[in-house]
Amino acid sequence: MTPKTSLTYLTHLSAALLPIALLWTLYHTATQAWWLADDPALLRSIAEYGIFPHFYQGEVWRNSVSYANLTPWVIFSLGIDWHLFGLEPFGYYIHHLLSFSVVLLIAYWVLNLFFSPLTCSLVLCIFVTSVPSANVAQLLMVRHYLEGLGFSLLAVGSYVKALQTQRTGWTLLGTCSYLLATTAKEIYVPLVLVLPSLPIGTWKQRWQKLIPFVIVAGAYVLWRSYMLKPSQLVSGYGEVVIPKLTWDTVWTLPTQLIQSLGWQHVWQWMILGLVAIIGLWVMFKQRLVGKILLWIMVTLLPIIPVLALLDSRYLFLPFFVSCLGVAIVLQFFIKKRWQPVAWVLGFLVFIVSWKAAQIGGPALIRQEGLLRQVQTEGKLILTDKQAHGVLVHPGAAFWYFSSLRWLREHILNLPVGVAACYDLCMCQPQPSDKVYQYVQNHLISSSAAEQLKECGKGDAELDIRLRFELGTLSWQLGPYQDGQYYGTASAADAVMDEQFYKIARQGHFYKGQFDKIYVVIKYISPAGWYTYSPKLMLDSTKKDSQGVVELNWQRPSKQLNGKNVE
């Protein structure tokens, strides 16, 4: 090995390891975290059904994980951890950061096919310090975003090498990588549209090498249609979970984008504005505008259904693509021998990203209070052998705690313990039960008898019309025009323990196919009084000739001669 070769290897090694070192420096504290968000629900599904049925049994996937998305790779990845580490989260987080490290190595290899080592290293450092990366690095439940990006990049690199070498092995590796990427997340499926735009080979060669990818994309459509049902082929969670995207929310998207990415200061906007103007000039100069618009469209189209609720993780792929735009700008100036301009621009963007991850956006690393609350409440429900009763005003969603209770009873074989309760009037604990609540960094308990009081007006007028057809639950509520309606629906009889969601007087929600649906409606008047419906049940096995189940329930007001009866 010559000195020149040794220097080249050292350059690549240093450039590739710098973003990885930055990753572990910034996010190594994630290894101290506990289960968060959807983690317990995913572990429950793994423990209950195993790993592989989630890839081919549609009912298992829809009923235990999601009726709106098809991402079984996250089950596979976390399933490996489940068999290695069980209910100890430390190993999961180590695996998570190691996966991120491997993704960065793959990203460096692919970027280095087009850009210099220093350019690759700098843009990957920008990517690592971004708010979307900070979010993904600290949440196990979104590992499919992370590893899906790795598979997509491996597919891109293999496609390029297949064009350069004309070897079948690279085509096979690229096709398999793309296949795995499609099982990770829907956002990586449109990759097949981007590959022909890469500046390698002739158009004929690109399309020939693209054929296996097109076959995989077609197979994905059929697979998704089978797993989610044709009605959910292009799907979303519905307006109950994700607000409908209206023109009003479209106009506020720039503000949401700035908040999600942590660009809160004028100096950040000035730097990014300058880089954007220079970037547009470079794109026009190199006739790349059409390709850039294609890449933007491909990355944004899959996240349109969730734009009304713009979480930073949804911007994980779009931000990576924007980093590629920065790389193109830097490489342009380097080729012009204007290296100082390139490094100044790159360093300024890095500072913007670094500062954003420190002060802006919902990076979990700063939410110590919430993390401590969720861990304290979670351990109370999962492992506490003495506590009994209900936990009120919990800090996570109902499926988080219900999954922990299932794991407690079926995996740890512990007796029934504490249940999460989002509305004490609905849960109706026994007077002898304890009521737990997390207050000022401490878990306190009191007697349920002290907490129970008059729970709304039991005789208030209420009108409920429910309809269940093709997995969709529709409703029409009355008689009140003002005030706010809330609803909760579950396939389990324990609907009384679940959360209420704000709902309109009329609406619909895709719930999937279940034998029975239990529904409770709550109404709060402008004057502050409130009332509940009883637990209503729709039996989908008793459909009419048109496959529809309907339920009409009404509580008339108590009136006598036009006057209310008290």
Compact summary:
Helices cover 52% and strands 14% of the residues. By secondary structure, the protein is an alpha+beta fold.
Task: List the SSEs and their pairings.
Elements lengths: L2 H25 L11 H11 L3 H4 L1 H7 L8 H13 L3 H23 L5 H12 L2 H7 L5 H23 L2 H17 L6 H4 L8 H26 L18 H15 L4 H20 L3 H12 L15 H20 L3 H21 L8 H15 L6 E4 L5 H13 L7 E4 L2 H4 L6 E6 L2 E6 H4 L10 E8 L2 E7 L5 E7 L10 E3 L2 E5 L5 E9 L5 E3 L3 E4 L8 E8 L3 E2 L2 E2 L2
Helix pairs in contact: 1-6, 1-7, 2-5, 2-19, 5-6, 6-7, 6-9, 7-16, 7-17, 9-10, 10-12, 14-16, 14-17, 15-16, 16-17
Total count of helical runs of at least 4 residues: 21
For the report, how would you describe the main beta sheet?
5 strands, antiparallel
Q: List low-confidence stretches.
A: 559-566
N- and C-termini, Cα separation: 96 Å
Based on secondary structure, the structural category is alpha+beta
Apparent shape: globular
Compute the average pLDDT.
85
Query: What's the gyration radius in Å?
Result: 27 Å
Strand content: 5-15%
> What's the helical proportion of residues?
40-55%
The counted number of beta strands is 15
What keywords describe this structure?
566 residues, alpha+beta, four-stranded mixed beta sheet
How does this structure look, described?
It is a single chain. Strands 7, 8, 10, 11 and 12 form a five-stranded antiparallel β-sheet that branches. Residues 559-566 have low confidence and may be disordered. This protein is an alpha+beta fold and 566 residues long. The longest helix has 26 residues, at 203-228. The chain has helices at 3-27, 39-49, 53-56, 58-64, 73-85, 89-111, 117-128, 131-137, 143-165, 168-184, 191-194, 203-228, 247-261, 266-285, 289-300, 316-335, 339-359, 368-382, 398-410, 424-427, 448-451; strands at 389-392, 418-421, 434-439, 442-447, 462-469, 472-478, 484-490, 501-503, 506-510, 516-524, 530-532, 536-539, 548-555, 559-560, 563-564.
